[in-house]
Design goal:
Length: 269
């Protein structure tokens, strides 16, 4: 079995290669998915974000999925998420298998920020996003459907085509009527999140994809528990404010403070 996997790994030569370092990173991070027949090729880099890089992959015929997004989390030393301790407040550190980290050795590695601790930290961020996507997709939210998970990577539904990903909402100018429709659906999505006691934590028009009249909420590694986080409402109100700022510019009449208070009281208080 190991010989077969090694042979398969040797066959993994993606169309997109990037730099020598990135090529090695892709093979190491996504090779297991390739071996498991999730995709046949890595077509292009979609974006390199603060905490992860996203690639567009050609789905393997056995999956029935044409295109797949592979989100690969950077090692903790390379991540640049500001104030990540804010999002980790009262959050349980998760192992790759989804179980909580309680043993002394792992907790000590995390506290000392050793190389092993940094890998655990990255894996925990990755697992939190996968679990959030799973819960919210099942609840009916417009988020990419998660497909598979590894310690530092997530495969999910791809929004776009084999040439380019769907643009972020921030880059789109909407007519007022269309903007009102999209805004109404996004507010419904925010309510779905709250019904699951989830606050995105970094929601704005930069974290929403837009394609064919539909909006998709993305990037949830920092999502927090609305009930457990001591600054839950503050982060929620910030999400609503940032989202409203975009739509006000598109001609939608909305008052962010009042909307945030109304939604929070309806679902949390």
């Amino acid at each position: 079995m190991n010989i077969q996997k090694n042979e398969i790994a040797d066959e993994f030569h993606p169309t997109f290669t990037g730099s020598r370092q990135e090529r090695a990173w892709i093979r190491e991070s996504l090779g297991g998915f390739y071996e498991d027949r999730w995709f046949t090729d890595v077509l292009y880099r979609v974006k390199g974000g603060k905490e992860a890089t996203v690639y567009c992959c050609r789905g393997h015929p056995v999956t029935g999925v044409d295109l797949i997004a592979a989100k690969v989390f950077r090692p903790r030393i390379f991540r640049a998420m500001k104030n990540d301790s804010l999002y980790k407040t009262n959050r349980t550190v998760l192992r790759p298998d989804g179980k909580s980290v309680f043993d002394r050795r792992r907790l000590l590695a995390l506290r000392k920020k050793t190389a092993y601790g940094k890998r655990l930290d990255a894996a925990s961020w990755c697992r939190h996003e996968y679990d959030a996507l799973t819960e919210l997709h099942e609840a009916g939210a417009d988020v990419p459907k998660p497909l598979a998970y590894a310690p530092n990577a997530i495969l999910m539904e791809f929004v776009g085509d084999d040439v380019q990903a769907a643009p972020i909402l921030q880059s789109i100018r909407l007519e007022r009527q269309e903007a009102e429709t999209v805004f109404e659906r996004l507010v419904e999505n925010v309510e779905i999140l709250l019904s699951c006691y989830v606050v995105h934590g970094d929601l704005s028009a930069y974290n929403v994809l837009y394609e064919d009249g539909e909006a998709w909420i993305i990037d949830l590694p920092q999502a927090i528990d609305a009930l457990q986080h001591p600054r839950g409402y503050e982060l929620f109100a910030r999400d609503v404010d940032r989202l409203c700022r975009y739509f006000v510019k598109q001609g939608v009449e909305v008052e962010a403070v009042g909307l945030a208070q109304e939604l929070w009281q309806r679902w949390i208080e």
